[in-house]
Structures are given as C-alpha cells and as structure tokens.
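Format notes (please read before filing issues)

Several people have asked whether sequences and structure tokens are stored in separate files. They are not. Every record keeps both together, in the order shown below: the sequence lines, then the token lines. Line labels are part of the format and must not be stripped during preprocessing.
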Amino acid sequence: MKETEKIGPLLQAFHKECDAAASPGEWNDVRVKYLGRKSVIMEMMKLLKTLSPEDKKTLGKEVNKAKAEMERALEEKKRAVESCKGQIAVDWTLPARGVLPAKVHPLTTVRRQMEDIFIRMGFDIRQGPDMETEWHCFDALNIPETHPARDEQDTFYLNREKMVLRTHTSPVQIRTMLEEKPPIYMIAPGRVYRNDVPDASHSPVFHQVEALAVDENITFGDLKGVIYAFLSELFGSGVKTRFDNSFFPFTEPSAEVYMSCFCGGKGCSVCKGSGWLEIGGAGMVDPEVFRAVGIDPEKYTGFAFGFGLERMAMLMYGVPDIRYFYENDLRMLTTM
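Then the structure lines:
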C-alpha cells in the first residue's frame, strides 16, 4: 500500500524535528504537527474506515506502531526540555571570545597619582569608616546644629542614634587628631555621600581627597605652597592658583581655591569664560576644632583643604558629566 510507504520517511522527519526541539514551545509544535488532529497520522487513522479488512489490518498495525513510537519519543523529549527549563543553551562549537586587556578606572588612576604626590611631600594616608557619628562628622568640626549641611535634605541619616553617612572625609582628620599627637601630616581619600539629585556635576556618592597638617608655626603661606606644589605636579608647572575669601565652620580664615584653566586664561566653555576653575576649599584649622580633639591651639596651628576626586578626573580627561564615571560604560576603560 502507498500509505504504508509513507510511514518510514514520516518517522525520520519526526525524529529529526523532535531531537532539535530545545524549548517547551518547540516541543509542542512537533507534537501538534505529528499527532494533532490534522496530522498525517490522524489522516491515516481516518482512512482505515474506507479500507478492506486485510488492508485495514496491515495499515492499522503500522500506524499504531508509528504513533506509539512518536508518543514515547515525545514523552522522553518533554522530560529533557523541562529539566533544562530556564537554562541558556550553549553552542560549544563557537570560538572563544577575545581577552580584553585589563585597565585601571580613571578615578583610580587619578587617586593613585594624588596619593603619590602627597606621599612624596611627607604626608601619610589615613582611612576611616563611611558610617560616622554626628559628633565626628559635624560637632567636632565646629559645625552648629543649625547649619544647612546637617539638614536631612543634604545628609543621609541612618538611625536614631545620630549615625550618618559621612558627607566629607574630614571625620578621618578628627579621628587622626584624637589618636595621634602633632606633628600630623595626612591625607584622607575616600567615598562620601550627599543627598543630591544626580546631574552633570552632582552625585549622591562621590570621592574626596582631604589633607591636614598640624605642627608648630604653620602658616597660610605653607597652605598655599603645598597646594601650588600639588597642582603643579598633577597638571604641570604652568598652572597658576588663586584664593578667594570664603567661610567654612572648621577653618579660619577660609578660602575657595582656583586654578588657571587649560585655555590659558582666554576663556572657554569649561571655565565659563573666566579663565579660572574652582577646585576645592581650604583654610587654617579653627582653634575650636583643636580644642574638640584635645590639641593646644596656643602651641599648634594647622591647615586643611579638600578636593573632589571626580572634579580632578573630569579636568584631566575632559569628561563633561560626572555620571559617566558610574555608568559601567567600557569606553571609560578603553579610551582613557
């Protein structure tokens, strides 16, 4: 019979498609195609009614045999597909991916450069906890309770015990002065937190590098000399500095620090036409801070200053948006 000759090729095609099914959806497509209501097998079953008893017996035997074979194969395939559900198929014949050379993130590069400069000037590196007490973060730094920096709109408060995520690395200076006696020459690089809305120049998480020097007869001239030496090492000997009067509760006198722009003072979009770039704050340590940590302000003087690490990296690499440092864009590692 012609119908029985169709069964062999039909089984071959079925097993090929059944073996290739890799998902429950593909498995169901094979089942419907070969055992569904409109399948070839079902058409043969309907044909049996029109055949003679002898032909019906011959074809019926072959059809039932083929149907049973398909059902067994589909049942085995169903268990295999369900056991692999949620797993990703892997083509082991694909060539291996190329190995990308490792490269240091720009922020890490700039931080290491800054640390190296200060170490060569005789400063030590100090670290402190990201979670601080209000006393270390504000009170010991002569920041009153009414100061805007202590408002919840600026600071992340963690619990009722007055623990905060540090808003600057100045608490490391406090801890160092509590633990060590002058002379003290230290820097405190680290992560800080502010309750800021992210934009091109603000981030709720960023990095600072603060410096502190405490010794006898330290003057504002020493502060200016250290900052100038640092900036000259980092950006080149042609850099110029400028100090404008300012106010910080923990320093007196206080100043905003500016450096000459890379445009040579001609004015550009980076410096907004002024020829100067604001890079941080500085000043002489307020006597009240010394009293809070048990250092005699009549015997010792000191200076402190701080720069934003991201600000330095943006200037060095020409990065226009601080968010680029945190978006996991591999171009930050391949083009800088």
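For reference, the curators noted about this record: The CA atoms of residues 53 and 59 lie 10 Å apart. DSSP finds eleven helices and nine strands in the chain.
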